[in-house]
Batch of 2 targets.
Target 1
Amino acid sequence: LVSYWHRAIHQEISDFFNILLCLQHFRFLGKRHIAKLAAAVKLAQSTHANGTLKGSNHPSQSSMASGGEGHRHARSQTMPIIRGKNALTNPKLLQMMDTGSIQEGDTLSPTDIEANLSTEVALTVLDVLELFVHHHKKQLLLDDGQNTLMKKVLDTYLLFFQINQSTATLRHVFAALRLFFPSAFFQGKADLCGCLCSEILKCCNHRSSSTQTEAAALLYFFMRQNFEFTKGKSIVRSHLQVIKAVSQLIADAGIGGSRFQQSLAIINNFANGDTPLKNTSFPAEVKDLTKRIRTVLMATAQMKEHEKDPEMLVDLQYSLANSYASTPELRRTWLESMAKIHVRNGDLSEQAAMCYIHISALIAESLKRRYWRADKSRMSIVSPEENPVFKCSSLLTTSRDQDSFSMGWAAFLCISPNVQEEGAMKEDTGTQDTPYTEDTLVEQLEQCVDYLWKSERYELIADINKPVIAVFEKRRDFKLQRLSELYYDIHRSYLKVTEVVDAEKRLFGRYYRVAFYGQGFFDEEESKEFIYKEPKLTGLSEVSQRLLKLYSDKFGADNVKMIQDSNKVNPKDLDPKFAYIQVTYVVPYFDEKEQHDKRTDFERHHNISRFVFETPFTLSGKKHGDVEEQCKRRTILTSSSFPYLKKRIEVVEQQSTEMNPIEVAIDEMSRKVSELNQLCNMEEVDMIRLQLKLQGSVSVKV
């Protein structure tokens, strides 16, 4: 063989590998299928003995036919044999019908014979394959392993996983792959690495516990090799490809059950017990990867359970998008899915628009990193950790030769601070994502503008259009009138801003604090507080009724109770038999500087992260009292900034201050004066609103 390989031409080598593909015709069909074959044999033999086999051929003729028809209908071997169109030409059936081929003293069952034959052929092919690899190392490593010969070899290795094999055979295949060239997987294109990760992950879900363990060990060894190949820097390549493979296998292979979870636990145990790498970042990176995989699996399973709960459904998709932070195209898929849910629920404003702005930031970041890879000398332009504030017009700066997307996600900070999430992308020079281009970014930005118009966020339209203008100016694109259309779009947006800024007729929504109590019902939501953003003039009663109906349908109407006040709740005082929901109206909170800076209604509803609500009380224990007795507790809640990708954001911090009666009176008077001043200083005084404010004047007792 070695002598033949050395003098063979390229086409002959290719033909040789085609011969090795005979492996799939000797695959082990399994005990159940062989039992069906045996039953078919008995039926065929009895029918043949009774002379009722219509149109059946002589065994020798059938054998000849099986060479053509049986080969073309190889897939029929995986179906019950009697139902196959060419059942009596099936080579397995004919072999078992040939009673002369089995000696009387032979104690081997048909299952044993099939298993032995399949294993013998597989091990022979594997032995030949390893011999070829040993004598062709130099040729296989040409161009960093990115050559047709390497692909042929790896495809043959992967064929062992793609067809049914005995556990003994798979054990030898795993051992052979542990000795394969790491450079073929960890440099150059990521295709080979991705294919191997996908097949190993399938084996992690194998019915055989020994195969599961072997697959988990190989995947761990694969990540360890990746870490060593990068000289202890990271496992970025294997991380990206494993996550990508998991996302594809969830639907295709149904991974995620107890067997797959057990394989993940084995991988973690290997990482924790690997003494030589204990003091490196490797164990933490392995743990992070398995955690992300579990998040993906859990969220996918839960989405079916929460199809009628829009907030929970978006939360789950958000967790999936974060799990795919290292894989831009997969993250984009889930961000688009979130946007569709918002549009379907009528949340056009912030949520749908913000999803598309995040996608734009993701594409810009991907383009920036691709540019860095093409020109390493410019990698010091911007570091995500610097958290700079750029003008949006700086998103795309052009040079003579090519575009420099040097700002990436940072260019969108002027629109929303939440776009920092798009900087979590892992960089891998071999990742073959969907090739984002300048046109991809422009199309996405135009989609953002469309939703900003629909959501009446006119102030942001110019910031989104400016980088698009930079693209068309560089192209000298005058014939299609795109530049004039873009400038006219900005002109219209500012006209709209002038029209609505004083009228304050836009309804940006209302905010509510929602708290959940009841460990037996809410699981992860239990004892957590969220800020909900509701559309336009949604009232407290409307929000409360919606949540009551939603959770009554989940837990039963008799098991859900609403807490009617805004007082602090001690979960220990509540009946564990019930689920409790507390809804409180909150308003955006601004300190003195923000009060001065945020003058328009738009500014008071854009990029807001702090909210406040007040709870009245008296020292005597009553909720309300006379002016000289009335106290109140002011609670300030902090979360991420609205508008956001989601309608609700978890409260991460809260501060409470108590005010005595004098402070309460001064605060009420100051607020009333401020509201009256604001109405009186309008160009056209709204008399109806002014009368409403005057009717609720401060009590004379003050």
Target 2
Amino acid sequence: MFFITGSLTVCTSAEKKDLSSESRKSLSVKITDVEDTDTAKNSVQNKLTIVKTPSDYTPAKPEIITFSNSDIKVNLYARRFAQGNGVYAEIEKIGGGSEPADVTLLFKNIKVPVTKTSWGFRALWGIDPQQKPGSFGVTVNYKINGKADSLATEIRIRDVNFPVSKTMLNVGKFSDMDYTNNPKFKAHIAESA
């Protein structure tokens, strides 16, 4: 569970630089304290995260996929599990025994870098914008007490209708349109190829 414990709007060093009030408005930053309270194991663990955002921006609540076994719990967070989005994973030990070792995470059988933290492990990866929609596997491999084990689930990647511009982009002298239309340059390109 997440609780927002406080919100504060601050301004950067705009006052020192004698910027106009309009410029100061664009430099202000909203700081929100987000407290994560997990009541598992009959205890309360608090993780405090400070989120710095522009003053007029409110972060959307992420979609969460949770899967676990008797050893570990995996939380996957994404704005949307869809093309072009990022996925953040947290891997925490929940059972008895030693700390997990040799932890690896695979998405579509491709290894994702995993980082050890004081509370467990984390990983971050992106979903390819050109990925076809469908269900894809996420697997976490680990060792506890010398015994290798794995935990797997599937996440459904949704389609995104990205905005597409149909107008020509004028890039001035960096365009090759003038060169490729000239017969002299076409002959030179054909000769060089």
